[in-house]
């Protein structure tokens, strides 16, 4: 417990900042959404555009998260378990999506895969596939923007855990797959889950890169964040805030999930410690 | 199963970890790889296990060339210095791991695995802790679980990397005896790495002394101690006092000190360094006809049957000497404060000017 007045003052200041910066905007979103009654909210929620946007957002997240889960684990494995030329360079390259503005990433993809590029033309002419201004392109940029999360969470952990347990498993006759499944995965599962939560949150909320490659076709290539922007520009305040509230709720659920998982892990650890002689 | 290592060389970048290593370990042996850190002993152990690939050279398990065999197919038991227990598995599951990883055809049925685990845990006296997690065990207990796990697949080769390195002195001693005892019970060829001379001497029946990626000497503990093959081995096995001075063919001198030596003409006139082991000298209140080595008592440590004394030479150098006396001799001596005492060596090791070991000599 704090004992001096300045400690209390600091705590109050922190609480005040949290309320002003985090809680108030979230509460206001809800108030704004319901400003014209619940029926308007319900109408907005069941509108075709909204449902299409929710579906699209979920599809993008559902593809992105597994892809980056596998990619992140492989990358972390590769960087922490092997010594090779260019390892440092690779760990730096992982950070490019963090360092670069998502809009720039979107533009890059547009230049490389869009209809104006040789590759994009070839895809369109020979395979009749259009990546940009369609779902594939949106998934591609979302994967790009969110790919560092899992690897970034795993790399320091796997570095600190070392490779001795894996070596022990191999010497006990375990194959590469068995070693991963029975030794490495249990060691990193909580961090992995955390990485997935972060990836998911970012994939659902991504705006910049997706807005460049989506083409903003109503009912087709609008994810929730894009729809919010669109509704706001149309002066449909209730619609915009309803979508925003939905997105915020998704984020909160993800956070709660993460907190619950962490709590469970601590609880398990404490239980283990209590029985220690 | 015997282990044979032929002209192994291993480099890490510019650093040469092992330089042309040849080694034979007979079946059923308990061999200690002894050397200071950086001498390459752990690298050699890891090469034998298959965890590292040598740059050249071959490894044989009983005439079978395993150099290119994957670590998981070598079937060696390996105990890591930090135990490397699977932290998310219980003690019993740790021990059962190797059996559970066997391909379906070779894997024993569930009950057989359980029985084998119980048997192993009894062997290492850990049967009451089967349900615990590694984080709930003490260092010594973890070490025993690691050993049980390594023995689960009945390996014919057991490799231990600094098995007692992370334990406190008392537990270390107990486990050392216990390992020796265990080795006698099961048919296995064991190779263990240590930097602790006492440990190597007590546990192993063969000692391999290594330095800077080379094998300096192989022999029984007694052989290695009594007849060291090189200055390094002499230096490394136990504490020594180096006495630097000049020899004129009859008498060795350094400042106020003199010592008559009969080297049978083996040492020429000139600079001569003498190595004195702490237990190969005694102290007296007066010099004798051969030795005049005045010293002053700086510190003493009475522990068990031996008394270890730190002595400062009086007028012949400033390096503190260490001498061990038995308790009775010490009590008979009972020197006063600031008394001058005289060191009387029984045997000394000469070191030639090119740094090699010369003959062992006695005063007289």
Number of domains of chain B: 2
User: What is the quaternary state of this protein?
Assistant: heterodimer
CATH topology of the largest domain in chain B, by name, is: Rossmann fold
User: Mind summarizing the main beta sheet of chain B?
Assistant: 6 strands, mixed
CATH architecture of the largest domain in chain A: Orthogonal Bundle
Widest beta sheet: strand line-up of chain B: 6-7-8-3-9-10
Walkthrough of the structure:
The complex is a heterodimer of chains A (277) and B (364). Chain A has 277 residues and is mostly helical. Chain A is built from 14 helices and no strands. Chain B is an alpha+beta fold. Chain B folds into 2 domains: 3-228, P-loop containing nucleotide triphosphate hydrolases (Rossmann fold, 3-Layer(aba) Sandwich), CATH 3.40.50.300; 241-363, Nucleic acid-binding proteins (OB fold (Dihydrolipoamide Acetyltransferase, E2P), Beta Barrel). In chain B, strand 12 and strand 13 (257-262) form a beta hairpin. In chain B, helix 4 packs across helix 5. Chain B is elongated, with a radius of gyration of 25 Å. Chain B starts with a strand and ends with a strand. The mean pLDDT of chain B is 90. Classes of the chains: A mainly alpha (277), B alpha+beta (364). Chains A and B meet through helix 10 and helix 11 of A and helix 2 and strand 6 of B.
Labels describing this entry:
heterodimer, A: 277 residues, mainly alpha, MetI-like fold, B: alpha+beta, Rossmann fold, 10 helices
In short, what is this structure?
The complex is a heterodimer of chains A (277) and B (364). Chain A has 14 helices and no strands. With 277 residues, chain A is mainly alpha-helical.
Outline the secondary-structure elements:
The complex is a heterodimer of chains A (277) and B (364).
Chain A: H1 5-33, H2 38-45, H3 48-81, H4 87-93, H5 96-99, H6 102-113, H7 118-127, H8 135-146, H9 148-161, H10 164-171, H11 176-205, H12 208-214, H13 224-233, H14 237-274
Helix pairs in contact in A: 1-14, 2-14, 3-8, 3-9, 3-11, 6-8, 6-12, 8-11, 8-12, 9-11, 10-11, 11-14, 13-14
Chain B: E1 3-12, E2 15-25, E3 30-34, H1 41-49, E4 56-61, E5 64-65, H2 71-74, E6 76-79, H3 91-100, H4 110-123, H5 139-151, E7 157-161, H6 169-185, E8 189-194, H7 197-203, E9 206-211, E10 214-219, H8 221-226, H9 231-236, E11 241-247, E12 251-254, E13 257-262, E14 270-276, E15 281-284, E16 291-292, E17 294-303, E18 306-313, E19 321-326, H10 327-333, E20 340-345, E21 348-351, E22 357-363
Parallel strand pairs in B: 3-8, 3-9, 6-7, 7-8
Antiparallel strand pairs in B: 1-2, 1-4, 4-5, 9-10, 11-12, 11-14, 12-13, 13-16, 13-22, 14-21, 15-20, 17-18, 17-20, 18-19, 21-22
Helix pairs in contact in B: 3-4, 3-5, 4-5
């Amino acid at each position: 417990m704090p004992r001096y007045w300045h400690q209390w003052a600091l705590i109050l200041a922190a609480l005040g900042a949290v309320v002003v910066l985090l809680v108030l905007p979230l509460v206001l979103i809800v108030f704004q959404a319901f400003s014209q009654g619940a029926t308007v909210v319900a109408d907005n929620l069941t509108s075709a555009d909204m449902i299409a946007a929710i579906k699209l957002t979920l599809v993008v997240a559902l593809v992105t998260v597994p892809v980056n889960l596998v990619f992140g684990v492989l990358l972390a494995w590769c960087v922490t378990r092997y010594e090779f030329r260019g390892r440092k360079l690779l760990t730096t390259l992982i950070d490019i999506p963090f360092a670069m503005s998502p809009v720039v990433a979107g533009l890059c993809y547009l230049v490389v895969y869009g209809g104006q590029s040789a590759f994009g033309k070839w895809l369109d002419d020979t395979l009749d596939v259009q990546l940009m201004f369609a779902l594939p392109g949106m998934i591609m940029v979302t994967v790009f923007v969110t790919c560092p999360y899992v690897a970034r969470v795993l790399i320091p952990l796997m570095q600190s855990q070392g490779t001795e347990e894996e070596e022990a498993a191999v010497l006990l006759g375990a194959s590469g797959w068995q070693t991963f499944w029975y030794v490495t995965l249990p060691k990193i599962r909580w961090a992995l889950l955390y990485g997935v939560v972060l990836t998911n949150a970012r994939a659902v909320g991504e705006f910049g890169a997706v807005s460049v490659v989506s083409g903003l076709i109503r009912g087709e290539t609008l994810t929730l964040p894009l729809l919010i922007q669109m509704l706001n520009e149309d002066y449909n305040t209730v619609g915009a805030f309803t979508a925003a509230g939905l997105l915020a709720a998704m984020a909160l659920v993800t956070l709660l999930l993460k907190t619950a998982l962490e709590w469970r892990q601590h609880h398990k650890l404490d239980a283990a410690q209590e029985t220690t002689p | 199963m015997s282990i044979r290592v032929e002209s192994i060389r291993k480099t890490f970048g510019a650093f040469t970890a092992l330089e042309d290593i040849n080694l034979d370990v007979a079946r059923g042996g308990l061999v200690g790889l002894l050397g200071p850190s950086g001498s390459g002993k752990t690298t050699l152990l890891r090469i034998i296990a298959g965890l590292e690939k040598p740059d050249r050279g071959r490894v044989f398990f009983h005439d079978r060339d395993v150099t290119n065999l994957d670590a998981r197919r070598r079937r060696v038991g390996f105990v890591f210095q930090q135990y490397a227990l699977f932290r998310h598995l219980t003690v019993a599951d740790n021990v059962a791991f190797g059996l559970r990883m066997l391909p379906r055809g070779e894997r024993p049925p569930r009950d057989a695995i359980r029985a084998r685990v119980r048997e192993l845990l009894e062997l290492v006296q850990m049967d009451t802790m089967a349900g615990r997690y590694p984080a709930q065990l003490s260092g010594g207990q973890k070490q025993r679980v690691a050993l049980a796990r390594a023995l689960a697949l009945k390996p014919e080769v057991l490799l231990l990397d600094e098995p007692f390195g992370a334990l406190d002195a008392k537990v270390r001693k107990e486990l050392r005896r216990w390992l020796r005892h265990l080795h006698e019970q099961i048919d296995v060829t064991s190779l263990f790495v240590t930097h602790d001379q006492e440990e190597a001497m007590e546990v192993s029946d063969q000692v391999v002394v290594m330095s800077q990626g080379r094998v300096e000497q192989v022999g029984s503990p007694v052989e290695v101690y009594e007849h060291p093959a090189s200055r390094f081995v002499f230096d490394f096995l136990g504490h020594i006092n180096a006495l630097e001075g000049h020899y004129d063919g009859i008498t060795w001198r350094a400042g106020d000190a003199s010592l008559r030596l009969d080297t049978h003409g083996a040492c020429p006139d000139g600079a001569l360094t003498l190595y004195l082991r702490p237990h190969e000298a005694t102290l007296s209140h007066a010099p004798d006809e051969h030795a005049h080595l005045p010293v002053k008592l700086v510190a003493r440590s009475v522990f068990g049957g031996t008394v270890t004394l730190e002595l400062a030479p009086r007028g012949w150098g400033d390096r503190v000497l260490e001498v061990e006396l038995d308790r009775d001799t010490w009590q008979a001596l009972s020197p006063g404060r600031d008394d001058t005492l005289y060191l009387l060596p029984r045997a000394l090791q000469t070191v030639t000017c090119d740094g090699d070991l010369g003959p062992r000599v006695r005063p007289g």
